[in-house]
Amino acid sequence: MYKPIACLSKNMPLVITSHGGRYNPLMRLIDRIDLLARIAFKNVDCLLVDTQAEKEYFSRILGDDKRIDLQLTIVGVDFDRFKPLNKERAKEIVRLPSQKKVILYVGRLYKLKGADIIIQAFKTLKKKYDVELIMIGYHQNDPLIKDARAAGARIIPVIPQEQLVPYYNAADVFVTASFEENVVAPGGIGMAPIEALACNTPVVSPSLRHFPQDDVEKVGKIPQSPEDVAKCIAGILEDPTPYHNCRRVARRYYDWKVVVDHLIKIYDKLFSKYYG
């Protein structure tokens, strides 16, 4: 849809946002031969992308065309809504024993999301740790509901965002475990992991590869395979000390205020260029 609009948008500031989707080989081929897209890009001032992989991809497509400002802009979280609570109090609110270690997952219960991998990791960890798995966000037709219950997980349907806060705070580690490239690559880090970090809860997830790499070791672990998920969770349960400041680290990049300030600077620059 952006292409015909962009082709007609001359002599005015034009910003386009790409939200992934360039991981299908057919889409990549279309991008290279699409004449309309090439005409449209001639009128674009700024292209916003939400993952580093997408930025690198468009850098190759654009080549030496330095006229387009290619910017990485990430989705933010309201750090005033998602904030730390006393862990003991959070466990009281969600009715968990204070001595229990808690693994939290928020999302649908099907394999594309890696819920089966989390369930298997939980089975492994239960043999060594006094741990509980809480899985929030299922729909009635999700295929792994019986598997989760059989494993002893506590499953909860979709709940309002504000009700997630005590669960994030009660958790010792937040986990996602999709290793599907067509999910992880275009999806960015995901909202739920950022919400967990905002509550100062470390994360185990393949999607952490999208977190700024200079700081990723301060907020959690990136499992390299399904079998590695349990090992990464165990590492955090046994030594959470390196992750005590994960909220502060994540806030530098993902607080909505930071994201909005970055966008305002981009638009201010364009308005000065065209109307200043």
UniProtKB/TrEMBL annotation:
<dbReference type="GO" id="GO:0016757">
    <property type="term" value="F:glycosyltransferase activity"/>
</dbReference>
<protein>
    <recommendedName>
        <fullName>Glycosyl transferase family 1 domain-containing protein</fullName>
    </recommendedName>
</protein>
<dbReference type="InterPro" id="IPR050194">
    <property type="entry name" value="Glycosyltransferase_grp1"/>
</dbReference>
<dbReference type="Pfam" id="PF00534">
    <property type="entry name" value="Glycos_transf_1"/>
</dbReference>
<dbReference type="InterPro" id="IPR001296">
    <property type="entry name" value="Glyco_trans_1"/>
</dbReference>
<feature type="domain" description="Glycosyl transferase family 1">
    <location>
        <begin position="87"/>
        <end position="252"/>
    </location>
</feature>
